[in-house]
Amino acid sequence: MKKAEREAYLKARLEEMLSYERQLCGEGYRYIAGVDEVGRGPLAGPVVAAAVVLPEDFDVIGVDDSKKLSEKKREQLYEVILEKALAVGIGSRDNQVIDEINILEATKLAMTQAIENAEIMLRERFGADIDYVLFDAMKIDAVEKPQMSLIKGDAKSVSIAAASIIAKVTRDRQMAEWSKIYPDYAFEKNKGYGTKAHYEGLTRCGMTPIHRKSFLKNFK
Q1: Residue whose C-alpha is closest to residue 46's, from 139, 174, 144
Q2: How far apart (Å, rounded) are the C-alpha atoms in residues 47 and 36?
Q3: What CA–CA distances, in Å, run from 191 to 75, 87, 116, 130, 174?
Q4: I need a surface site. Which of 88, 98, 156, 157 has the fewest CB within 10 A?
Q5: Among 53, 64, 56, which Cα is nearest to 10's?
Q6: Is residue 46 helix, strand or coil?
Q7: pLDDT tens per residue across span 126-177
Q8: How many domains does one find in the chain?
Q9: Could you say which residues bind a divalent metal cation here (predicted)?
Q10: 90 falls within a domain
Q11: How far lies 181's CA from each of 46, 80, 116, 188, in Å?
Q12: DSSP type of residue 44
């Protein structure tokens, strides 16, 4: 694909991914938060969620499901999203909470925290509250706001996609820091997922304080 063709494709893709936000704006909603998480599947580390409120004129091409993007592209878009967004909030729950209440409930708490933190920023900047939430395949009754759950929402909504990038880069950076403390598990590469190198580290050294015991019942 030539450069001009690639740019035309990305512009068309952005228009497609703005459809939910534009529809909601047409219904009178102004501050729409896209919410996503990363880290439900790893054997170690936290689950991290992000909530992002974008301006109506958001025009950054290339924002998409974080899993579809290279690490370099995610890092670039992370900085642009932080610059352009009206508000960004992060929430997380560590491995101990995950072991205590299960990964689904921990994810909901992380998402709720992300929304609350984004709303704090939105109030500080604009004196406004989030008035609609777009979730990626999730519904949280404790969030008392109008909301929509979109299956594969990180590939359908630009706000959810932006949240997926913020959450992914945030968690990846955390795992890279953990790798300096626990160098035997290749966290800087696998981010806590169950790769061969990770399992080899578990066999040699056992679990660290950041491992999820409920995910690793065959290890001590």
Answers
A1: 174
A2: 11
A3: 15, 26, 26, 31, 9
A4: 156
A5: 64
A6: coil
A7: 999 999 999 999 999 999 999 999 999 999 999 999 999 999 999 999 999 9
A8: 1
A9: 36-37, 136
A10: yes
A11: 16, 30, 31, 11
A12: B
Burial class (CB in 10 A: 0-12, 13-18, 19+), 143: buried
What is the rounded CA–CA span in Å between residue 215 and residue 205?
17
- Is 36 part of any known ligand binding site? yes
Per-residue pLDDT of the chain (220 residues; tens, 9 = 90+): 677 888 888 889 999 999 999 999 999 999 999 999 999 999 999 999 999 999 999 999 999 999 999 999 999 999 999 999 999 999 999 999 999 999 999 999 999 999 999 999 999 999 999 999 999 999 999 999 999 999 999 999 999 999 999 999 999 999 999 999 999 999 999 999 999 999 999 999 999 999 999 999 887 6
Distances (CA, A) of 79 to 10, 74, 88, 192: 19, 9, 12, 24
Would you state the structure tokens that stand for residue 134, as one six-digit string? 């777009």
Backbone angles phi, psi at 112, to 5 degrees: -60, -40
Instruction: Please give the sequence-ordered ranges of beta strands (E in DSSP) within 16-83, or none if there are none.
Output: 32-38, 47-53
Is residue 7 in some structural domain?
Answer: yes
Domain of 104 in residue numbering reads as 3-173
Query: CA-to-CA distance for 218 and 214, rounded, in angstroms?
Result: 10
Tokens representing 35 are 């919410």
183 belongs to a structural domain: no
Which tokens sit at 56? 């109506």
Select from 28, 48, 46 the least CA-distant residue to 37: 48
